[in-house]
Every structure is written in structure tokens, then in C-alpha cells.
Specification:
By secondary structure, the chain is α/β, with parallel strands linked by helices. The protein has a domain at 21-191: Alpha-Beta Barrel (Anaerobic Ribonucleotide-triphosphate Reductase Large Chain). The chain is 44% helix and 16% strand. It has helices at 4-16, 38-53, 56-67, 81-84, 90-107, 125-139, 159-175, 221-234, 240-269, 291-296, 307-325, 343-350, 356-362, 381-398, 438-442; strands at 21-28, 71-78, 111-113, 117-118, 144-152, 156-158, 187-191, 212-218, 273-277, 369-376, 402-409, 417-419, 426-428, 446-447. α2 packs parallel to α5 (90-107), α8 packs antiparallel against α9 (240-269) and α9 packs across α11.
């Protein structure tokens, strides 16, 4: 139970510090909808989504209004389409994506995730068909997101899939070139993807998950920043150990709020509650930024020397506070550093404090990876694949989730601005390394898993 002081503190977070529940995500398994007859499959999928999602938005709004805590996004995640539709052709995969988009619109949700594949050890014909369909599928839909897992600490890195994704990211950008390549903002390449992510674009419902489940993603980077600012104002002798304690206690309260809302939504819909993902997910709004936390701990800007250490402390403290608050923490849980979605991070990138290399270094200790980064539209596919391979190696070796969501912006170069709108924000295009990775990527095969994968 919260004390009176903690209740008042939480109310202040809601009124002044951008505390919200970033997403309630309804996970729906589609395995019982599988069929060789596409029309029958489509009918069953739409019927199941409509049956379970019909009251999702209404319930989230009612619960949010009851507690005065807004649920910003209502989303759906489904089983990986490459598995559910293993026998589909490329054109059928496109139709499946369009069908999911229509179902998402009918349900009134913001995004639907799960149009993806798990190919860390190899690719089936269904996996290849889905990946080949991505440019047309993502260009012809608005709300569907795709995640492709190409590496894991147990399987290594599938370099054939990495090479293919480099080419498909470029094609997806070109297919949505009139909108600054926004199709790539709905496409992310993972290592060690969790099965219960409620955040987009990585959300999908894993094979070991329930038939239907409610997962919640909490946020509140503005709350963490304000808590650190208050602590430093009242205690001039504050150390980094003290800062970590402040972050932990704040993450505890934020997680309790998120789980309260998630469980209430689940109970009202008669569904099981899954996990609380306590990731600090920013928005482009001023005061709702992960990047501003770095200034609160004494750095001139995110990207300054010391940024990786500060991010490691932030990520660890958020996890510790959240785990104490909930027995069911899952998803990604930590700190995101998406360039276009965070006003402070975008400003640092514009000023040259954050380069691709510095961002890559910081991903070794953050929750996701290279996220929402605009790069020149003429970047070669092999360069994009090389960036993916580097990030996958960080995840594989360290046994953590990492991801790449880069957006090659057609017709634009370094210093120009790509505008995606809404929560996706905007970003100046940053340079990528000019070195040539084509021969390396062309070798293909698999990079073996590290020795510590042999845990049995």
C-alpha cells in the first residue's frame, strides 16, 4: 500500500511531470487461426481480434479516467506472422499485413505488432516470404509494425538474414520515400527479442505466451528527471549512489501505477495480466525526455564523456526499482534512446554530440539499441547490414536485447531533416561510416554463438 505522502507524490507526477501509462497492449495468439485457405484464415483472424479487442480502447479510457492516469496508446500484438502463415506466398503476406491493418483500425488501436519472423538460426520459406513482402506490406498499411529477430546468444547471428534485411530496409524506405521513408520506422531488427514486448515496433506475442493476455508499458522519464532535480536541490552533497537510490524509488512508484492500471484493464476485460514493461520511453514533448536526465546528473548533454556510464546507472536503477514493485516485470524494461522520439537526444545529435559510433557504444548498456535514427538515403545496403551486424554482436555477446531501427531517407543527405510526425517525431540525418562492408556481408553464413551460450 502507498502512504499518504507517496499518493501525493504520485498525484504531482501526473499533474506536472508527464507520468502516464504509455501503452496497454492486448496480446492475441493466432495459432488457432492457421489455415492453408487464405480467405478462411483471414476471416478467423479478424473475428478473433474483433472478439477480444472490441472493448480494449473503451476499457482503457474508463480505467484511466477512474484513476486520473492517462493510457496514451492502446495496441495489439499477435503471433509472428511468418510462423502462423508459414505456407503463404509473398503476395499473400502482403494481403495478411493489410488484413491486420484493417483489423487494427476497426479496433481503434494505435498500432498492431507481430508481422514478423524469428530467423536467428535459419530461414523457412514462410520467413523469406514475409521478409520479401515488407516493402509493399509496410507501404500499403498504417498501423502494422514488423520485428525480425536475426540473432541470439544461444544461436549466434544469421548473417544471411542480416544481409537480406539491409536490402529490405532500403527497399522499404524507397517504397515510402514520399513520407521520408516512414515504413522503416515500423520495422526493427532484433537480437534476443523478448516474447512479451508491449512497445512498438518490436511487439509480438511469443510462442510460449497465453492465448490472450494484457501487457502494460509504463514510462515517465520526466518524472525521473524531476526527482533527481529535487534531490540535488535539497542535498548539496548528493553522490551518484544517492542518485541511483532516487531513480530506484521513483521507478518503484511508476511501476506500481502501471501495474495497477494494467491489472484493472485485464480484470475488467476478463483476461489474464501478463507483464509490466518499465522502460523509460520518451516522447518529442519537452519535459518527457530521457536525454534531459543526463543533464540532471551533471553532463552538459547526452553524448558527452560519461554518458555511457550514466546510462548504465539509469538502466540498472530503473530495473531494480521496478522489480521490487512487481513480480511480473518483462518486455524490455530499462531506458530507450530513440533519436527522433526524444527532443533532447535529437538536439544532441543535431549538435554533433551524438554520432552513430557513440550511440552504438551506449547501446551496450541501454534496453534496446540504435533506435529511430535517420541516415542518408544513399547509404548502401551492405553498410546498413554492417550496422545491424555490429549491434547484433553487442546483444549476442552480452546476453541482452539489442535492436536496430534505422531510416535511410530517400533523396536526403546529412544535415537535412526527416519528419515522421506524432510520437515518431523528427530527426536530422546523421552520417554513417564510409568504410566498405560489402565483402564481409557477402560471405553470409552464421557467426557462431559465444562460448557462454553453452549453459546446460
Amino acid at each position: 500500500m502507498l502512504t499518504e505522502r507517496e499518493v501525493l507524490s504520485t498525484i504531482n507526477m501526473l499533474r506536472n511531470e508527464h507520468l502516464d501509462v504509455r501503452t496497454v497492449t492486448l496480446g492475441i495468439s493466432l495459432f488457432d487461426c492457421a489455415s492453408h485457405d487464405f480467405d478462411y484464415f483471414s476471416y478467423k483472424v479478424r473475428a478473433k481480434i474483433a472478439r477480444y479487442a472490441a472493448k480494449l480502447v473503451e476499457t482503457c479510457n474508463e480505467v484511466g479516467a477512474r484513476y486520473g492516469i492517462p493510457v496514451v496508446n492502446k495496441r495489439i500484438s499477435v503471433s509472428p506472422m511468418a510462423v502462423v502463415g508459414a505456407g503463404f506466398s509473398v503476395s499473400q503476406m502482403v494481403r495478411a499485413c493489410q488484413m491486420l491493418d484493417e483489423a487494427a483500425k476497426d479496433a481503434g488501436v494505435d498500432f498492431l505488432g507481430g508481422f514478423g519472423a524469428l530467423v536467428e538460426k535459419g530461414m523457412t520459406p514462410g520467413d523469406v516470404a514475409l521478409i520479401e513482402s515488407l516493402p509493399e506490406a509496410l507501404a500499403s498499411t498504417d498501423r502494422v509494425c514488423s520485428s525480425i529477430n536475426v540473432a541470439s546468444s544461444r544461436a549466434g547471428i544469421n548473417m544471411d538474414a542480416v544481409a537480406l534485411m539491409g536490402r529490405q530496409i532500403l527497399k522499404t524506405a524507397e517504397a515510402t520515400g514520399e513520407r521520408d521513408g516512414i515504413g522503416c520506422a515500423k520495422l526493427v531488427v532484433f537480437a534476443n527479442i523478448p516474447q512479451d514486448v508491449p512497445f512498438m515496433a518490436g511487439a509480438y506475442l511469443g510462442i510460449g505466451e497465453p492465448d490472450v493476455v494484457i501487457n502494460v508499458g509504463v514510462s515517465g522519464p520526466g518524472v525521473v528527471k524531476k526527482a533527481i532535480d529535487r534531490a540535488r536541490q535539497t542535498n548539496k552533497n548528493l553522490t551518484l549512489s544517492d542518485v541511483a537510490e532516487v531513480i530506484k524509488s521513483t521507478a518503484y512508484k511508476v511501476t506500481r501505477v502501471g501495474e495497477l492500471i494494467g491489472r484493472e484493464v485485464a480484470d475488467n476485460m476478463g483476461l489474464p495480466f501478463g507483464v509490466a514493461d518499465l522502460s523509460l520511453a520518451p516522447t518529442p514533448a519537452v519535459g518527457d525526455s530521457v536525454g534531459e536526465i543526463f543533464q540532471s546528473v551533471g553532463l552538459s548533454s547526452i553524448g558527452a564523456p560519461g554518458s555511457t556510464a550514466a546510462l548504465a546507472m539509469l538502466n540498472d536503477a530503473v530495473k531494480k526499482g521496478g522489480v521490487f514493485a512487481s513480480s511480473h516485470v518483462g518486455g524490455l524494461s530499462g531506458a530507450f534512446i530513440p533519436v527522433s522520439e526524444d527532443s533532447s537526444i535529437e538536439s544532441a545529435a543535431n549538435a554533433g554530440f551524438l554520432t552513430m559510433e557513440k550511440l552504438e557504444a551506449m547501446t551496450s548498456v541501454c534496453s534496446v539499441g540504435l533506435d529511430m535514427i535517420a541516415i542518408p538515403g544513399d547509404a548502401p545496403a551492405s553498410t546498413i547490414s554492417g550496422i545491424i551486424a555490429d549491434e547484433m554482436a553487442i546483444g549476442m555477446i552480452n546476453g541482452k536485447t539489442t535492436a536496430v531501427r534505422v531510416i535511410p531517407v530517400p533523396g536526403k543527405g546529412v544535415g537535412e531533416t526527416a519528419v515522421f510526425g506524432g510520437l515518431l517525431g523528427q530527426a536530422k540525418i546523421i552520417p554513417v561510416h564510409k568504410g566498405d562492408a560489402s565483402d564481409f556481408i557477402g560471405l553470409g553464413g552464421r557467426i557462431p554463438a559465444p562460448i557462454h551460450s553453452l549453459k546446460n
